[in-house]
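User: two proteins, same treatment. go.

Assistant:
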Amino acid sequence: MSEGWISIGRVVKRTGVAASALRFYESKGLIRSVGEAGKTRHYHRDVIRRVSFIRIAQSLGMSLQEIADALSRLPLQRTPSADDWALISQAWRGLLQNRIDALSQLRDKLDSCIGCGCLSLHHCQLYNPGDAVGKQGPGPRFLTAPDSESGGPATSSASRKSKT
């Protein structure tokens, strides 16, 4: 194998990721290897950074499809440059901000209502009289749609508490 290629065993040691996970990532098109069937897989050195990126992105809750989309922007068989990583960062800013906003909304609403319109909590009668939100469909409507679209209260949990 030429310079720049490393064995699957070396990738396992460098990344802490099991060989089975590397094969899974490869089956999903996240990384690539070379080698003949039944022989040791070899990966280009840049796979170490890719695997690290995959692990970090997964720990942030990114789906494999989101990760694959991001990795498709990177060059193959070359270590990504700062500009390459900046492209991914820019592409994920909106997505990450949406997740931050959703988590903030969950944090602010979870203490008084799970936002499902089920009327099972004492205060639901105050925030969702007649289960009006339930008519919009199943699930946690207050938490999965912006306040303006959900029909839910547009007030913060702090202001709702003061009304009770």
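Protein 2:
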Amino acid sequence: MPLLASNEGVWEGWYRYYDAKTGALTDEHRSRLFCRLTGEPGHEEYTQTNHYFWDDGRVDVREFPAWYENGRIWWDNDLIKGWAAAMQPDDRNRSTCLNWTRHDEPDIYLYEMIQVNEDRTKRARTWQWFRDGECYQRTLIDERLVTRDWASFTDTSAPKI
């Protein structure tokens, strides 16, 4: 999946959660994501580590190991089960779609759209959360690439964005 590989690196941004009925902002926090491919060429594994930072000092770190199979990236870990695939048709190869559910909330599912700019340095992500067939929440995520060299990145402080 060349599109996913082009997202390898450290990304920083904002997650903002909105009530789907009212449009009210219900949560926001800064983020730093480490997107990496490891392993032998042709047998790489994808792992994403998300660091979340709230203004009140809370921090959360989540690990998302995945594998590539049948044209998709697949997750099945303690938190989520789902997949990611490049959007077709996308003549510019800038869009990815994800679908996942949380193991602790199986009646909720989510679709995510990721769009990157031409030089793969900025991306916008949208999550649509569904429960009982209705969209009840949306998450908007705006990110910028900090470095492609995730292995050398050592800053553990909250992003200053």
